[in-house]
Design goal:
By secondary structure, the protein is of the alpha+beta class. The protein is built from 17 helices and 19 strands. The strands form five sheets. It has a five-stranded parallel sheet. A five-stranded antiparallel sheet has the order 11-15-14-12-13. Strands 16-10-18-19 form a four-stranded antiparallel sheet.
């Protein structure tokens, strides 16, 4: 694909009318013809379930796959704090344009304007859709939907269901999906892991999956493929993601020709329960919503080991309120995370490790009363108490940044189609809407926007404009993909080494966190790029994968995912090295303002970096999509 010119297919003209104009100009598939088309959808989180349900409702035949035993176990269920929408119910100055502006600015001017405006525009429909499904959003005393604030915004636009918003939204999407399953418009395949995309005659025409119960390699054919398989945060080993979250589907698609965009854009969430030891396999998120009422502070004095109640007010540094008076504790996640790290680096961190800061609710409890706080955050306080054995009603929470979300993903155009014709990518698996830093409560918004309101239009346009001769799973492309998948499995089982899979994954995570984590330098990135290939070689010489391929074998599943991470991590580090600027969650220490903020280089790096696979260990080829800003003109981000 050398010399490929990326075409974002963004509509021309005013951004405010672009999506409506584009919807009118796209071709339609009439109802009788929809029944002739089979669409494969991989993933049943918010993006996947909403897409499968919507396409089934339209009349398409949909095959829907997930690695879990039920779609309801998709990782979207873990989202806590809320979902953004520009409803302006609070009459506080919000609008579609303000949500668009906040998202572009929050992403540090590294996102595509047309996609972001569409996201803001469709946000208002998402809330109506979810309320109609019965999602129990919090309501004010009079019965109207309530809102709260999240980072990077000065308005209250976040709709929520206590600290369980992702779960409630997923149940809404799940019931819509299961309605279509009951009508036989959607066929659901649980406990299947996608191991390859089948590309026939230059188009995505199917998938090869492994039945995780029987071990059988299965083939499925269709007219288009949708990937809604989430992000790649578990490349860092410890993250807020479910342990089974992985990059495999996206990475295998990348190796088939789908460009990977901006992999270095990883989000560090500032409010997580700190690491407590080597025994952990994941970290626990404490919702950003807590920063509405919790105040972040550390002792002013280095090495102050006193308990928090013994430190008087005048010896506390409420550093976010001090440095960012306009936004206070509700600065964006990248800003809050870097400041927490800076406090710890200065020796003012708290707790036994010194790698934590306080999130204190004393003033909010005094102002509002414990019952109001319990109503707002009760399940989060209970979770914190259960994990730490500390009562946040009485003592401050200890929090520290951790890997949470990934803004990078497979490159897609305005129609959410990758560089493989027919392969569409939704939600966190694509790169499209958040630039270099996602604002809190925008992940749920993007997943549902893509699934309910974008892909039903754009995939129809693809099907109406594309010649798709009938294909079966006996086609040579299916045989080759299935053979590749089986050979990879056989290769993993044949190593018979003496090192555990988790041990190697933990070592990779340590490399990534230390050298490609919150702060990156040329030296650290080169160190990571030297270490990763050595660890990959060690994996293929020494990994121990017990069991056989012909039944349930979770060690084999895990080994396949870690093998992919040992390839993907190199691309992530390479992208971070090549992007010699700081922007959003990508912080290069060589590129910062005098007061330690991220310093962009718009002259040289105002583009989407879309990488083409050239072989394991080979230098990938960079393709650039220039970013053009006609509405929101880039400036140095300030939240002061």
């Amino acid at each position: 694909m050398s010399g490929v010119k990326l075409d974002a297919k963004s509509p021309g003209g005013p951004v405010a009318s672009a999506w409506d104009r584009h919807k009118f100009e796209m071709k339609l598939v009439n109802p009788a013809n929809k029944r002739k088309h089979t669409i494969i959808c991989v993933g049943t989180g918010l993006a996947g379930a909403s897409a499968a349900a919507s396409l089934g409702e339209l009349g398409y035949r949909v095959l829907n796959f997930c690695i879990q035993d039920s779609p309801r176990r998709a990782h979207s269920i873990a989202a806590q704090g809320g979902i953004n929408a520009a409803k302006n119910y609070q009459n506080d100055g919000d609008s579609v344009y303000r949500l668009f502006y906040d998202t572009v600015k929050g992403g540090d001017y590294r996102s595509r304007e047309a996609n972001v405006y569409r996201l803001a525009q469709t946000s208002v429909s998402i809330i109506d859709q979810c309320v109609a499904q019965g999602v129990p959003f919090a309501r004010e005393y009079g019965g109207l939907l309530d809102n709260r604030s999240f980072g990077g915004a000065q308005v209250s636009r976040t709709f929520y269901a206590r600290g369980q918003t992702g779960q409630q939204l997923l149940i809404g999407a799940y019931q819509s999906l299961m309605r279509q399953v009951h009508k036989k418009a959607v066929r659901l395949f649980a406990r299947r892991e996608m191991l390859d995309v089948v590309v026939a005659d230059g188009k995505a025409r199917g998938v090869v999956v492994r039945n995780l119960v029987s071990g059988e390699i299965e083939r499925y054919a269709g007219d288009a493929v949708i990937l809604a398989t989430g992000g790649y945060g578990t490349v860092y080993y410890l993250s807020t993601n479910a342990v089974n979250s992985n990059v495999t589907a996206a990475w295998r698609a990348h190796k088939r020709g789908a460009f990977f965009a901006n992999p270095c854009y990883t989000q560090i969430h500032p409010t997580c329960i700190p690491v407590s030891g080597e025994h952990q396999s994941k970290l626990t998120l404490m919702s950003e919503s807590l920063r509405n009422d919790g105040r972040v502070w550390v002792p002013k004095k280095q090495g102050d080991a006193r308990s928090p109640e013994q430190i008087p007010e005048d010896e506390r540094d409420y550093y976010l309120e001090r440095k960012y008076p306009s936004f206070g504790n509700l600065v964006p996640r990248d800003v809050a995370s870097r400041n927490a790290k800076q406090a710890a680096d200065e020796g003012r961190g708290v707790g036994e490790s010194g790698l934590a800061v306080y999130l204190d609710f004393k003033d909010a409890i005094k102002r509002l009363g414990p019952e109001v706080i319990k109503e707002k955050y009760g399940n989060l306080f209970q979770m914190y108490n259960k994990i730490t054995d500390e009562d946040p009603y009485k003592v401050p929470m200890r929090i520290y940044p951790a890997i949470h979300y990934t803004m990078g993903g497979l490159w897609v155009d305005y129609n959410l189609m990758s560089t493989i014709p027919g392969l569409h990518v939704l939600g966190e698996a694509n790169f499209s809407d958040h630039g270099a830093n996602r604002l809190g409560a925008s992940a749920l918004m993007q997943g549902l926007a893509d699934g309910y309101f974008v892909i039903p239009y754009t995939i129809g346009d693809y099907l109406a404009n594309t010649s798709l001769p009938k294909i079966t799973t006996d086609h040579d492309a299916f045989k080759e993909a299935a053979s590749n998948a089986q050979n990879h499995i056989n290769k993993l089982l044949a190593v018979k080494g003496n090192r555990g899979i988790r041990e190697i994954h933990r070592e990779l995570g340590r490399i990534m966190w230390d050298d490609v984590g919150m702060a990156r330098t040329e030296e650290s990135l080169k160190r990571a790029l030297a270490a990763i290939p050595k660890l990959r070689e060690e994996f293929w010489h020494s990994v121990s994968v017990p069991g056989t391929p012909d039944n349930l074998n979770q060690s084999l599943e895990y080994a396949g995912r870690v093998a992919d991470y040992l390839e993907f991590s190199e691309l992530l580090a390479f992208d971070a090295l090549e992007r010699r600027e700081s922007c959003g969650g990508h912080f290069r220490e060589e590129s910062q303002t005098p007061d330690g903020e991220a310093l962009r280089d718009d002259e040289h790096f105002s583009y989407v970096a879309a990488w083409e696979f050239k072989g394991v260990g080979a230098r990938p080829e960079l393709h650039k999509e220039p970013l053009v800003f006609e509405e929101v003109h880039p400036t140095q981000r300030s939240y002061k």
